[in-house]
Design goal:
Length: 298
């Protein structure tokens, strides 16, 4: 015999499972719980327990997992890359993000940092067998009044020679992404700097300053289909010069040096920026030479 409480109308039930309203009345339990029916009672109790668990979780609780849209970072308009429909502009003068730094040595470098802490965290690894640094980074740009990029660095003083081979594993990356060989006064996102940039499209340039608006010299490799095999930067006193080897020939200086003073100690190293504010891309920098002397780029 099954029992339903007559005074409970539909409006009073809420989310009470129907199975709870069909449980055997206590006075008839001896009739129901016989050896042949005991398993049925167990099944009913189990189903009702499961139903109660489901009732205990409200619809709101069931939908608390954030959606992909909710997790998507908010990208300011100034950080969007240039396109036929959009011109990238400098960030607001007072906009900064604190740099995130890991002081664990990596290869020949003393540490690595997300300069300007891009919306997606970067990373880097070193393979001693191949002498390759793999750098993963997002970042709106290394330009204007502040930077966002993954930076592998060493504190140095005096003269410096730095050279490396550069490749971009992802053939479909943004054309203006760039690997940099860079000298910076500090790890702050607005630090004074002199950099050699090699872009995914092949362009190489030397840029400097605390507010970068244009490069000093550039080789537009994208127009000729040439990507330099090796690039280098040299600091000799306050003179900064860049070097290239297009196809493996001995490295030669590209353009005259610029003049820029750095107080000691300063930071020297390699970095990468995807040129996309929240999208991580990858660059491989290999056969890195770093010496505390001028005239050693090769």
């Amino acid at each position: 015999m099954w029992y339903r409480e007559p005074q409970l109308g539909v409006n009073n039930l809420g989310a009470v499972p129907a199975c709870l309203l069909q449980f055997p009345a206590m006075e008839n339990l001896s009739e129901v719980v016989t050896p042949g029916r005991c398993w049925r009672v167990l099944v009913v109790v189990t189903i009702c327990a499961a139903a109660l668990a489901g009732c205990a979780q409200s619809p709101a609780a069931q939908n608390t997992a954030p959606s992909a849209t909710q997790n998507a970072p908010v990208i300011p308009d100034w950080a969007l890359p240039g396109s036929p429909a959009h011109k990238q502009v400098p960030p607001p003068a007072d906009f900064h993000r604190a740099t995130t730094t890991d002081n664990t040595p990596i290869g020949i470098f003393e540490g690595q940092s997300d300069v300007g802490s891009a919306l997606a965290p970067g990373s880097a690894s070193y393979d001693s067998a191949t002498r390759q640094y793999t750098i993963n980074s997002a970042g709106y740009n290394i330009w204007y009044s502040r930077d966002e990029f993954r930076y592998l660095w060493k504190k140095m003083s005096g003269d410096v020679s730095l050279a490396a081979d550069v490749t971009f594993p992802n053939a479909n990356g943004y054309g203006d992404r760039k690997v940099v060989l860079i000298i910076r006064q500090s790890l702050d996102d607005d630090a004074k700097e002199a950099m050699l940039g090699e872009h995914g499209a092949g362009m190489i340039h030397l840029a400097r300053g605390e507010f970068i608006q244009d490069m000093q010299y550039r080789f537009t490799g994208g127009l000729t289909g040439v990507h330099a095999k090796r690039v280098g930067i040299e600091k000799r006193g306050d003179q900064i010069a860049i070097f290239i080897s297009l196809e493996g020939e001995p490295m030669h200086q590209f353009g005259p040096p610029i003049t820029m003073h750095f107080d000691a100690p300063f930071y020297v190293g390699i970095g990468f920026c995807s040129h996309l504010p929240a999208t991580v891309d990858t660059a491989v920098v290999s056969n890195v030479l770093l010496e505390n002397k001028a005239g050693k780029v090769r």
